[in-house]
Amino acid sequence: MNILVSNVGFAFSGIGFVFLFLLLLTTKKQSLQKKLLYLICLCGVLWSLTSYSQFTAQWGIAPVLLTESCLNIAFFLLLTSSLSNHQTLPHAIASSLHKGLLITLLIMAALAAVRIFSPILNLKMFLLLHLGQAIIGLWATEQLYRRTHRSETWTIKPLCLGLGVFFAYHFALYSDALLTNSIERGFWVGRGWIAVLTIPLILLTARRVSNWGSRVYVSRDVIYHSTLLLVAGGYLLIMAIVGYYLKIQGQTWGSLAQSLFFALSGIVFASLFLSESFRNNLKVFITKHFFANKYEYRVEWMKVAELLDNQESSPYDSALQAMVRPFGCEQALLAIKENGKFKIKSDYQTEKHHHNAQQLLDLLANHAVEHQWIIDIAQLKNGGEKTPFAIEPQQLPSEHPFSYVVPLTCSTGVKGVYLLSQPTSTDQLNWEDRDLMRAISMQLSVYLNVHHANQKLAESRQFDTFNRMSAFLVHDLKNVVAQLQLINKNAIKHKHNPEFIDDAFETVESAVGRLNKVLHQLNNKRLDKQQTQSINLINTLQAVCERRAVSMPKPTLFLPSETSHLISNHRLSADGERLSNILGHLIQNAQDATQPEGNVNVITEFKSDYFVISIKDNGTGMSQEFIESRLFKPFDTTKGNAGMGIGAYDAKQFIEELGGYIDVESSVGKGTCFHVHIPAITQNQAVIEK
What we know:
By secondary structure, the chain is α+β, with helices and mostly antiparallel strands. It has helices spanning 2-25, 32-56, 61-81, 89-92, 96-117, 123-147, 153-180, 185-189, 191-208, 227-248, 255-274, 276-289, 297-308, 315-324, 354-371, 377-382, 431-494, 498-524, 537-548, 561-567, 576-592, 624-631, 647-657, and strands spanning 332-338, 341-348, 375-376, 404-408, 416-420, 533-536, 555-558, 571-574, 600-607, 610-617, 661-667, 671-679, 688-689.
């Protein structure tokens, strides 16, 4: 009976391979995979004939093993070539791993061919080699399935199922034969019927795939560990343990035990293909530790960075789009926690659902943030999701488009949540989708935290600018008050002097102008916006020296004859009044540090590209430490309540704005010299014009 069943099975398999060959001839499109299918048909027919002849003509097992090796090689070439876009065999198997496996299979086939004529190696070694072929076939089958793009898996699924059954059957056959030192006849004769089941599945894939190898997705150039390889190893380990136990007990394998282990292998492999929950759990474990991720994180981060770099949208809109884009949600909103309440900051096609969204936020947002939990609203409402917090399902609003609550938080970032509708990129969120959501939310939390920090910094800068402006304005007012006090002091003695009266009116007019400027700056709340004009440096210096001549010692202006004609013909584009105030302040400081009988000299010279103004005195002087640490430090003064401590700082800032710099030479008890370098040519507002 077994012989009849085997003969019919191998006869049908041979006819099936011939039928597949004839159907392939009806297609005009040529490809590498089609040529390999021709090779499979040829090897399949030879394999069926030798297997049929083994029983009818009493042939040995060596020709069967040889043709089976050839058929396995043809299957392997078809599987590996489908992982490449190349249509030439050398390029399709360019991977060193594929080349190594192909060479291994060819060596096995060569050994099987030699054994027909010379009995090299023993039968058990050949059974081990064919077990290796089955494992290689299982590995290649799963590689094709795992590494094919998700949108194309339906086309190659029949092929993977058919070859998976074919190689799994031979794996169970040869592993049983190795451990029992004999081939179970029932296993052996069933191979033809397994081939009969495989051929229609191969044909179905051949009809589905229009261009083999054109839509293969490979995320990383690494070797993936196979789930089936892991299961196969576990199966062999169990059989080896049982076989070792039987050997210790002096027992042998019986037909019942062989049947049980074959049934076990069938259950395991069937569970991989048929049990959804078992396959999903095993897939998550293996994929998480060995396979490429569902998402290419480098690409995802680049897309998120591109969205966050969008200057046209608000930071909240950009953050919402960054979360929505990878999952294709049609409706979403972002809420940020402010003063203990979640407020909607950005929404996407959810304007009419804000009331229900606020109810969801009040019920779920705090729990999501506190427990870092992505909440499936539908599962929560149906009682199907176990959460670390308790919520009454009837409290949830019934009419809203949202499916998930995603926390937006990290240890140093903004706290908030996303409400997302059902993603269109996937039917149901798995662990990879949730991991990507968490990663993006942590990044966006930091991004929004930086945005909030920048807002606070901008506000602080506004107050700082206003305070700084106030300090400089007070400094200007102090100078105006000093001028008016001087007039008032001298009025008692010189009020009948016409020259004094004229000079007093000029001083009052100047004070009015400066006060109007102060009021203008206060009204516009701007300090850095200066009124630039073309000024003559020599005239400005002369006016400053004349104004400071009311105090002792009077400043003396020196214009060296060899450079005076160069200096007098140059003009500067700058805020003339501020420059005048700065030079006047430096001269006043020199006067304050010098005894009335001392000297304050203002020397001008032209050095290379700089117009240099040197203000030199023989007063008390300063130490080098004071110059480096305190001289230009704002609000640090040695004059007590009489000074603001910003004159030198303002001078340094203004000259540097013009593109110049200030050098200071000083010795305690010997005097000080300020060298003010103003560039003769600059690329901004400081330009000395001829």
